[in-house]
Design a protein that fits this description.
By secondary structure, the chain is of the alpha+beta class. 38% of the residues lie in helices and 25% in strands.
Length: 421
């Protein structure tokens, strides 16, 4: 049979040669790659004697540092390539740990290049031992950490900016919060008053508010409320509510009319996709010369009842049942009550941040209305300043206060002749 026939009827010799050629090229690649991989690896390699003298270094590290091989091999120690701080760390920490453990990895150091520039690296070193277990040399791998250092620097810069922004936000929130509260409460002859605002979070503006202000001759208005939500939206409602209450009280001081006006304003302004509402208690104070002390009429729109602590040591809530949230409905039911504050009596208004605070002893982990009533009974008889001081101490005992808390206390002092001896 001819060669042509063999070729036509049998295998093509090129098919037999193809695998052989690939194996040959692959074998050549393996023979060439070991040294090339060491010299031109994407990381630096360094071998030193036990005293630190450089015995071997790859081309990658030489290129990074700008040295010739003869500048380092047999002439310099690894520590000579480090910055001053790096050499100190190497002597006091790196080298002792390496001798004890035989390996140390992921250490951030800085190398000093030939031109004086610095190269941040991540260093891993291992001790190579002989067949007898004795250390022979130290192998060190160095990874270029310039990108990582740049990332860390940028991260620190971003964190500093975030901290500054957070500080600015805290200052803005504090300033805004202060504008929503009266700088000082009005001086009411024959009445002692005190108030306190506990901020649950400095990162958000709360929605609690209170005020005490003069109206017509011989009458004063007071209110305390809590807007739903937090932040700028709640602050806008708080500001609107506070100034609406004051304006409405000047126009018609009847507590029911005042809250009805506020309800109309809030319902008109916030009846869209983001409805806003609040709970409020408004009081009208007038001196009672015939019985001494003050007469107060309270109107409540869904607000927690006030706590009255009597001069005789008793305490109880002033019931205002059925009052509805302000701003939800066009026509709102407002509950009222009138009480006489005799000398020695103290009235405490509060927002629900107080009774809903977390405590291990309360029902469902909350402080609760019953506990606050027991608190008032243990405190009575008391004064406005002592009441607020006791509430502040009480807040410090809670395991958590999720919501801002506002408290306002009014007290009718006894005459000196009436003080208990």
């Amino acid at each position: 049979m001819s060669t042509a026939d063999e070729t036509e009827g049998g295998k093509d010799p090129a098919e037999d040669r193809a695998p052989t050629d690939e194996e040959a090229r692959f074998s050549e690649l393996l023979e060439d790659s070991a040294e090339d991989l060491y010299e031109h690896a994407p990381c630096g390699y360094l071998s030193t004697l036990l005293d630190g003298r450089i015995a071997k270094v790859n081309a990658t590290l030489l290129d990074w540092l700008g040295y010739e091989r003869d500048d380092l091999v047999g002439r310099r120690r690894f520590s000579d390539l480090l910055t001053v701080g790096g050499r100190l760390y190497h002597e006091t920490h790196f080298a002792p740990l390496l001798r004890m453990q035989g390996e140390i990895s992921g250490i951030a150091l800085e190398l000093k290049a030939a031109d004086g520039s610095r190269l941040p690296v991540m260093v891993t070193s291992t001790v190579k031992t002989g067949s007898d277990g004795q250390p022979l040399l130290i192998r060190t791998t160095l990874f270029d950490a310039r990108d990582r250092r740049a990332y860390e620097t940028e991260l620190l810069r971003a964190r500093r900016e975030a901290d500054l922004e957070r500080d600015r936000l805290k200052l803005l929130n504090t300033t805004l919060q202060n504008t929503l509260l009266p700088p000082v409460l009005a001086n009411v002859p024959g009445l002692d008053v005190d108030a306190y605002y506990h901020i649950a979070s400095v990162d958000e503006v709360g929605g609690d508010f209170y005020d005490l202000f003069p109206l017509a001759a011989g009458t004063w208005g007071l209110f305390l409320g809590d807007v739903c939500g937090k932040g700028a939206a709640a602050a806008a409602v708080t500001s609107l509510a506070r100034y609406t209450l004051r304006a409405a009280a000047v126009y018609d001081p009847d507590p029911t009319a005042v809250l009805a006006n506020l309800n109309t304003v809030l319902n008109h302004e916030f009846n869209g996709t983001d409805p806003r509402f609040c709970t409020v208690v408004f009081g009208l104070l007038t001196p009672d010369p015939q019985r001494s002390g003050f007469r107060i009429t309270l109107a409540s729109g869904g607000h927690p009842p006030a706590l009255l602590m009597r001069a005789d040591g008793t305490a109880d809530y002033l019931p205002t049942p059925g009052g509805q949230l302000i701003g939800v409905l066009q026509d709102v039911h407002i509950s009222t009550t009138t009480v006489h504050l005799a000398p020695g009596d103290t009235l405490l208004l509060h927002t629900d941040g107080l009774t809903e605070a977390h405590t291990a002893a309360g029902p469902d982990g909350r402080y609760g209305d019953d506990a606050l009533l027991d608190f008032g009974r243990a405190l009575a008889p008391t004064t406005a300043s002592d009441t607020i001081g006791a509430v502040r101490d009480l807040l410090d005992t809670f395991t958590g206060v999720d919501d801002d808390t506002a408290v306002l206390a009014v007290h009718v002092p006894r005459a000196l002749s009436e003080e208990p001896q």
